[in-house]
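Per your request, structure below.
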């Protein structure tokens, strides 16, 4: 057996091969695995060494398996003993891809760009600064008083289910013109499916700096000088807020299989700013509508952010703007579920007509 990982977003962890069995050590936490196994036996047995964090997530989600490296399916894992999970996959062609996240990297982004570049009403801007680039899809003509809706995925690059939802947003808008027209008549939509295409090819879970350091990039919105990709996205959002044109601003994350629901949320207080009763009610009603018929979903408003510097903390504190985040689950939800999540959110977006409370009135 050979274990290979020199492809887009390939990551290997310590392993040992013994006969037809391979053992991967995924400790500590939820270590990322994305490998190609070549010359594999017809029935490949796998042991995964895990701690408590990794165990829950993999038991809920399963191990992800693919023959072509494009379409992944979940294979259930069992727990034969403490600290170990076990899975078995049939490998008819002698090679198989194994992953702990549904891979979304530059390959997937390239595919999305190629599949949609002929759609006349989809435009792509390539933001760039400091040796980094980030593409953003734009839909709809700007017009008097139209709200701007912004979706940002891949802030934490290995929370790939979020990227698949964003990918689904773009594909839904591109594949259904009458639906898109109706939606875009009343708003403009921006989608960044992968906030940092470079970090997606690195083993760090969130963001990899130019110096090769893994940092919690999503929490740099409040920094004086965030890394290039966050700085560029922040400028875009702040510009829209200043014009009082903010509609839905949603960062799309994934807690993978750690929880069995997809949860959208926002906060009531940041810095000196507290939502009024009516803005608070609006935020809750907006989330409720947005999540209608979204698979396995719920919504929640918290008193304060759990980690300072995240987008909704910074944007409420410094700009008194209400913005949202969703954590997409991978427990029982795979590629079809991610696509459906995107479609339902867009459906629901069209049902929300009042965006004035997103920005505080002067
Ligand atoms: Zn995250």
């Amino acid at each position: 057996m050979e274990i290979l990982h020199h492809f887009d977003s390939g990551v290997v962890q310590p392993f040992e091969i013994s006969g037809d069995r391979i053992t991967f050590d995924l400790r500590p936490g939820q270590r990322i695995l994305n490998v190609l196994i070549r010359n594999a036996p017809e029935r490949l047995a796998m042991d995964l060494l895990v701690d408590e964090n990794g165990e829950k997530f993999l038991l809920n989600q399963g191990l992800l398996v693919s023959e072509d490296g494009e379409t992944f399916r979940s294979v259930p894992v069992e727990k034969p003993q403490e600290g170990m999970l076990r899975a078995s996959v049939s490998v008819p062609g002698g090679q198989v891809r194994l992953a702990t996240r549904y891979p979304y990297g530059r390959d997937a982004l390239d595919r999305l760009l190629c599949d949609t570049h002929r759609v006349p009403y989809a435009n792509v801007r390539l933001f760039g600064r400091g040796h980094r680039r980030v593409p953003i899809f734009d839909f709809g003509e700007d017009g008097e008083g139209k709200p701007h809706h912004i979706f940002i995925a891949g802030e934490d690059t290995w929370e790939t289910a979020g990227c698949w939802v964003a990918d689904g947003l773009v594909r839904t808008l591109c594949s259904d013109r009458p639906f898109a027209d109706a939606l875009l008549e009343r708003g403009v939509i921006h989608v960044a499916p992968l906030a940092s295409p470079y970090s997606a090819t690195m083993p760090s879970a969130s963001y990899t700096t130019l110096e090769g350091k893994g940092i919690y990039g999503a929490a740099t919105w409040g920094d004086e000088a965030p890394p290039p990709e966050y700085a560029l996205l922040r400028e875009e959002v702040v510009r829209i807020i200043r014009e009082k044109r903010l509609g839905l601003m949603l960062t799309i994350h994934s807690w993978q299989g750690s929880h069995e629901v997809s949860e959208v949320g926002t906060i009531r207080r940041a810095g000196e700013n507290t939502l009024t009763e009516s803005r608070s009610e609006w935020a809750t009603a907006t989330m409720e509508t947005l999540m209608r018929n979204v698979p396995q979903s719920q919504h929640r408003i918290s008193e304060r952010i759990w980690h300072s510097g995240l987008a909704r903390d910074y944007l409420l504190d410094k700009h008194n703007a209400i913005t949202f985040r969703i954590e997409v689950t991978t427990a029982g939800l795979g590629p079809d579920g991610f696509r459906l999540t995107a479609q339902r959110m867009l459906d629901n977006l069209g049902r929300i007509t009042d965006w004035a409370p997103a920005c505080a009135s002067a």
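The chain has eight helices and 22 strands.

Regards,
D.
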